[in-house]
Amino acid sequence: MKVTYKALEFFNQYFKLEIIEDGFVKLNNSWNMFKDSSPYNRLYFITGGKGYLKRDDSVIELTPHHCYLIPSNSMYDFICDENLDKFYIHFKASLVPGLEVFSDVYHCLSIPYSDTQIETLLKWVKDDRIENQIMCRAELLKVISQFITLYNIDKKLLDHTIKYKDIFQYIDKHLSIELHPNDICDRINISYDSLRRIIKSDTGKTLKQHIDSMIMQRAKEQLVITDKTIKTIAYELDFKDEFYFSRYFKKHEGKSPTQYKTKYSTFNRK
Questions:
Q1: What CATH number should be reported for the domain holding residue 118?
Q2: Is the pTM of this model over 0.85?
Q3: Which of 52, 104, 151, 163 reaches 20 to 30 Å from 1, CA-CA?
Q4: What pLDDT is stored for residue 124 in this prediction?
Q5: Domain identity same for 69 and 189
Q6: Which tens digit of pLDDT belongs to each residue from 165-198?
Q7: CB 10: neighbour CB atoms within 10 A?
Q8: Same domain as 15, residue 125
Q9: What is d(CA 110, CA 67) in angstroms, rounded to the nearest whole number?
Q10: Which pLDDT value is given to residue 6?
Q11: Partners of 22 in the beta sheet?
Q12: What is the domain range of residue 229?
C-alpha cells in the first residue's frame, strides 16, 4: 500500500520562497528611514553595531546574535546612531498567489542567531556549489518556520490555501482591474452570492477585496523592485490610463504611485 505524507505534498504544491534581494551592508548614522514600509518581508541578521526600529512608543533594538523579521507592509522608523552591520534578505513566502504567509502580521519579532550560525550561512551564500546552495535554502526555510511558530500563524491559513487554491491561481493569472468576481464564479461554476458568503466567512475578505489586494501588491512590487514607469505598470494591470491607476492606488494606499516609488524603491536606496 502506498503511503503519502501531507507535509511533503504541501511543500511541493503550495509553498514558494522567492528571494527578492540580499546583501551585506555596513551602515552609519546616515541610515535613517522614517515611516518605511515594503511590499516584501525583510530578514536582518545583525553582525555588529546597533540600530533601532521605532513605531509610536515602541522601540526595538537591532543587536548582534539575533535575526529579525520585518513583515511586508509593516511600517517603522529605521534608525542607526553610529554603525550597524547586517546581512539582509528580502523575500516573499507565499502559499498560493495572493496568500502570503506573513500577510496578517505587522510587527517585528526576533530569534537568537549566533555568530557561528551567521558565519555558516554567509559561507553557503557565497559558495556556488549546489550542495551549499541547498543547505542555504534549507537554513532559510528553518528560520522562516521558526518565525511562523513565533507569530502563531493559524492552521486555518493552510486549510484556506487548499480550499481556494484554484481561485487565487485564477486571479493571479488573470490579474486585472477589469477582472470581476462573476468571471471567477463562472469559471468554477458557483453562484456569486454563495462564493461571496463562504470566502468572506473563511478569510475575512470579500472576493473583490482579495482582487484589489492582489492588484495593489503586484503594483507595489513593480514600483519598488523594477524600473518600470507608472504608465507601464498601469497598462499591464489594464487600467485605461495612468491617472485612473494613480487615483485607485492612492485610494488604497494613501500615497500616489509616484510618492510610493520615490520613498520605497530599491533603485532610489542604492
A1: 2.60.120.10
A2: yes
A3: 163
A4: 94
A5: no
A6: 889 989 999 999 999 999 888 888 888 888 888 8
A7: 14
A8: yes
A9: 5
A10: 64
A11: 89
A12: 164-269
Q: What is the 3-state secondary structure (H, E, C) of the chain?
A: CCCCCHHHHHHHHCCEEEEEEEEEEEEECCCEEEEECCCCEEEEEEEEECEEEEECCEEEEECCCEEEEECCCCCEEEECCCEEEEEEEEEEEEEECCEECCCCCCCCEEEECCHHHHHHHHHHHHCCCHHHHHHHHHHHHHHHHHHHHHCCCCCHHHHHHHHCHHHHHHHHHCCCCCCCHHHHHHHHCCCHHHHHHHHHHHHCCCHHHHHHHHHHHHHHHHHHHCCCCHHHHHHHCCCCCHHHHHHHHHHHHCCCHHHHHHHHCHHHHC
Count of structural domains, the chain:
2
Question: Of the candidates 217, 212, 169, which has an alpha carbon nearest to the alpha carbon of residue 20?
Answer: 217
Last residue of a domain, one of 133, 153, 173: 153
27/132 same-domain check: yes
Look at residues 122, 153, 184 and tell me which one is the last residue of a structural domain.
153
Same domain? For 187 and 65 the reply is no
* Cα(240)–Cα(234) distance, integer angstroms: 8
Low-confidence residues in the chain, pLDDT < 70: 1-12, 98, 266-270
Same-domain status, 117 and 173: no
Q: How many CB atoms lie within 10 A of CB 177?
A: 16
Q: Of 182, 170, 254, which Cα lies nearest the Cα of 214?
A: 170
Q: Which of 43, 31, 111, 33 is nearest to 71 (CA)?
A: 43
Which whole-number Å values give the CA distances from 183 to 161, 211, 237, in the listed order?
Answer: 20, 12, 16
Could you give the CA distance from residue 196 to residue 164 in angstroms, rounded to a whole number? Answer: 12
pLDDT tens string 217-238: 999 999 998 999 999 999 999 9
pLDDT of residue 264: 83
